[in-house]
Input
Amino acid sequence: MRTGPKASYAAPAVEKAFEVLELLANQPGGALISEMAVLMDRSVGEIFRIVIVLEKMGYLQKSPKDDRYTVAYKLLDLAYRATPAQDLVAIAKPAMRQLAMDSGQSCHLVVINDDAGLVIAREQNPGTRGFSLRMGAPVDMLTSCSGQVLLAFSPEEVRNHVIDRAIGATSSRIDRVALERRMPIIRKQGHEKRKSPITRGVTDLSYPVFGFDGGVVAALTIPFLELIDGSQMVDMDTARALLKAAASDMSVAMGYKPD
Output
């Protein structure tokens, strides 16, 4: 009788397929099969068959210009259809579209994805100037506005797990004591506001979105871009009020019943 069946089973082809997908996820410009083989320390023959099958199934796409492979959108579509993100995005999109129109600012929706945040929806501002994150972009859970909102409103065990994993995955020095002191402040004020740690002229505003069970399911964020000539549609306080209302509407649509 076998013990620990999960540890004893092996499917080399499946493992290689996921290795290819994870490798290409970190190669924005794509990679040749020969480059994948070097990076994965495998033979070209091993990788070639896996890549061709993944391309045939629609999970990879090859550039007609230089034969580099990148991950196709089918993977994102599969993830949406197979996870609660589908319902969340379907509910969020109308509210996000209205928020972008009313505020003149872009907005995006972030969920926890292991040790990082993940942008699962975005709405660009309707004007000619703006700032936005791309769909699927990773978000730093420890330093970003969205990440800290998600941490602040998550259960303690989830928060500690994510922080432990995120600290282990970064080479930067993180002041954990200061981070944990910030959590009750964010919960008390109900949102977070901070200068973007990477982009000048942008102030991030973020509110939690809650599900039917009262747990936080996402962070709705506006990277507020303040123009030098002051020609943005609304000021920051108005944008924050619009953001709060949109996050609240989304929470109610998700079945959340506030106290």
Remarks:
- The domain at 11-72 is CATH 1.10.10.10 (Arc Repressor Mutant, subunit A).
